Amino acid sequence: MTTSYRITLLPGDGIGPEIMAVARQLLDAVSSSHGFSLVYDVQPMGGVAIDATGEPLPNSTLEACKTADAVLLAAIGSPQYDSLPREQRPESGLLGLRSALGLFANLRPVKIIPALIDASTLKREVIEGVDLMVVRELTGGVYFGTPKGRVEAEGRVRAFNTMAYFDDEIDRIAKVAFELAVARSGRLCSVDKANVLDVSQLWRDQVTAMAADYPAVELSHMYVDNAAMQLVRNPRQFDVLLTSNLFGDILSDEAAMLSGSIGMLPSASLGSSGPGLFEPIHGSAPDIARQDKANPMAMVLSAAMMLRVGLQQDAAATALETAVDRVLAAGYRTGDLMSEGCTQLGCRAMGEQLLAALAG
Ligand SMILES: NC(=O)c1ccc[n+]([C@@H]2O[C@H](COP(=O)([O-])OP(=O)(O)OC[C@H]3O[C@@H](n4cnc5c(N)ncnc54)[C@H](O)[C@@H]3O)[C@@H](O)[C@H]2O)c1
Ligand SMILES: CC(C)[C@H](C(=O)O)[C@@H](O)C(=O)O
Ligand SMILES: [Mg+2]
């Protein structure tokens, strides 16, 4: 009998539906050529869900995610929702989903594809050979800490959030990072702001203590401001980068530019059990939405991560990644990566090239 997986698809907003359409075509092709099948359940999340139901993460969507084998998300968000109360915005739906699925570990690989070396704003000799992994804590820190809010007092307005971690929250994400470091080059750099923040001192203490269990891992610590600088000065010094929620959000967008475009970086969000969530690190790109300009590669590479990490379909995942490499090597580019001598394509045409490369 053919193995069949249930995938909940969340196309979301902006460029989301455009890049999801490409990923879906490729998933159909790669699953049939690799002897398994995917059954999709398309659900509203983000702005589209607000329009349909008044909430960014309807219960029916959350249930469909909880019962799936994996969840594939494109992107959510749009300026039209920015004036809603925070808990009703698209971004709150995404945070609620991550939290409800217990997805504390966000893996954001940054690997330079040789064909794109000259697409980066950084020099070839700086980025050549970069292959790093940001391990971002995803369900704690300042994104979720309480108290938070906005108050008026004595004629002034004050707004506040709380950056907080429990020791065991740090331990479980640190363990993911140490294990990954063992499987990769053995180098782990933990990023914090322990020179200023108590929460970062706890982070550093916990990570340091765990190092005793991993004698083969070479652990270093770096302040986040220095890490931001080192990422563009000499990114090859990094293998696994362990970060809290906010620091990882910022550093991964910065790291995306090593690869040439934020339209290239995929991610996997994992918990200790249950389905994983796979999504590009970029957003809904409202500035290019509905213009057939989006780069679908981060989405396709997220689908590949879903196949490999979520469904253990390693060969199919590699086939998608190889298709991306081939199309780039042949000189096809979406606008975000365009350079002289290359052929510019829209999102749909890029999808066609990827399909052809997958078949060839
Ligand atoms: N996981 C998510 O769904 C997610 C992630 C980040 C931001 N957002 C949301 O997206 C909205 C827009 O945020 P933003 O503008 O700060 O970030 P963004 O990532 O959407 O866009 C930043 C810039 O990168 C470009 N870009 C992004 N993805 C691209 C792609 N695939 N191909 C070509 N160009 C691409 C955009 O055109 C834009 O110029 C906001 O509502 C934000 O909250 C959602
Ligand atoms: C949209 C937003 C909530 C999200 C985050 O900050 O985690 C995004 O920027 C990301 O990187 O996935
Ligand atoms: Mg982000």
TrEMBL record:
Residues engaged in binding Mg(2+): D225, D249, D253
Cofactor: binding comment: Binds 1 Mg(2+) or Mn(2+) ion per subunit.
GO terms classed as biological process: L-leucine biosynthetic process
Any Pfam family matching the protein: Iso_dh
Domain Isopropylmalate dehydrogenase-like: 6-354
Record-stated family: Belongs to the isocitrate and isopropylmalate dehydrogenases family. LeuB type 1 subfamily.
Reactions the enzyme catalyzes: (2R,3S)-3-isopropylmalate + NAD(+) = 4-methyl-2-oxopentanoate + CO2 + NADH
GO cellular component, one term: cytosol
Matches recorded under HAMAP family: LeuB_type1
Keywords assigned by UniProt, alphabetized: Amino-acid biosynthesis, Branched-chain amino acid biosynthesis, Cytoplasm, Leucine biosynthesis, Magnesium, Manganese, Metal-binding, NAD, Oxidoreductase
Residues involved in substrate binding: R98, R108, R136, D225
PROSITE patterns listed in its UniProt record: IDH_IMDH
UniProt keyword Cell division present: no
Locations listed in the record: Cytoplasm
Pathway the protein contributes to: Amino-acid biosynthesis; L-leucine biosynthesis; L-leucine from 3-methyl-2-oxobutanoate: step 3/4
Positions of NAD(+) binding: G283, S284, A285, P286, D287, I288, A289, R290, Q291, D292, K293, A294, N295
EC assignment: 1.1.1.85
Annotated GO MF terms: 3-isopropylmalate dehydrogenase activity; magnesium ion binding; NAD binding
Cofactor section: Mn(2+); Mg(2+)
Listed PANTHER family: 3-ISOPROPYLMALATE DEHYDROGENASE
Role description: Catalyzes the oxidation of 3-carboxy-2-hydroxy-4-methylpentanoate (3-isopropylmalate) to 3-carboxy-4-methyl-2-oxopentanoate. The product decarboxylates to 4-methyl-2 oxopentanoate.
Sites annotated Important for catalysis: Y143, K193
InterPro entries listed in its UniProt record: IsoCit/isopropylmalate_DH_CS (IPR019818), IsoPropMal-DH-like_dom (IPR024084), Isopropylmalate_DH (IPR004429)
Record protein name field: 3-isopropylmalate dehydrogenase
Predominant location: cytoplasm
Assembly mode: Homodimer.
Gene coding for it: leuB
